[in-house]
Amino acid sequence: MLYEYAATTLEGEAKTGSIEASSVDIAINALQARDLVITDIKKSVKPGGSILERLSSFKFFNKVKHKDIVVLSRQLATLFEAKIAVTDSFRLLAEQASNAMLKESLTEIIEDIKGGSSLSLALSKHPDIFSVFYVNMIKSGEESGKLEEIFRSLADHLERSYELTSKTKNALIYPAFVVATFFIVMILMLTFVIPKLTSILTEVNQKIPFYTRILIGVSEFFKDFGIFLFIGAAIGGVFLWRYSKTERGSMAVSRFQTSFPFVGVLYSKFYLSRMTDNMETLLSSGVPAVKTLETTAEVVGNKVYRDILLTAVKEVNGGSSISEALSKYPEIPLMVVQMIKTGEETGKLSFMLKTLGKFYKKEVDNAVETLVSLIEPVMIVVLGGAVGILLISILGPIYNITAGV
Q: For residues 83 and 88, what is the distance between their CA atoms, to the nearest angstrom?
């Protein structure tokens, strides 16, 4: 891989150029060996490359998907079980990787390990691919000497997480698509189709029903000010997106997720399933309780539950039990608190968390099925009603005109 650099010599002379290396760290070491002080270094992008090659240099277009990490973890678990060395395992997977960003990261990890770095430290340099949860699991495996078991446990956990996330997203994509399509079609009809039909009504002196006049008014409004509504909606969308990235905005989105009618119940069970499953995986791998709570807080995916877990960390550090620390929050069901308390008292906390994880996974599955089965008839009634009102408001008066001719 080619890197462009700017540097100065020990005498202060400016130097620029390029260097071929498998990773940026190796490029830096090679330049420093030439007694150069690096001021800037970046990956070179060929100006004559194709559009796809240029786009692939941006992380947005070359992001490593969750599914890729699931497959990678399962492959690593298999290679480790076959007693393949760590560097050889990563080299084999780097050669097979179709994602350029993943391939590059695996190559850099190999170089870091060859340079004396631990596997967990090498992985931690790629937070966009390997989460805090992932790194802590690997670190636990290194400390306990059970890296092979940890990778197998990681693969199982990531597969469960991927399956749960995919099922939840897919359940919400269909109704969102139908509703979005309905609004787009309605706006197009109000803007382009209805004005042509209403021109027939306005050319005659027959009395127009009240509800038809309302529809005509709405149609004229969209026709005259539709572009301004679109611009306002776009600006509002950008504002909301940027607001959601702030601390307050993130909390507002998280609370909205778990409090919205029907969908909020699904999201709450989803985050509880993820929380208990992550905690069980970490604890059963030998990660201390406090570190387990901290790591789970970073990967749970919801600001509300993240803050609950981080507050619980402080209370556990102060001498409280996990069940006692979590019992103060209405977002944590009483059943979860009681089962964690039983696990703490009997020394089977991992087992209790595993049971909770399975329970809430089934609850999410049932909630998804219920939501989908309810959404379909509701949407049919709502869409049918809207189309019916549209037809009655316009075609009804037109029929009356033709009948009276």
A: 10
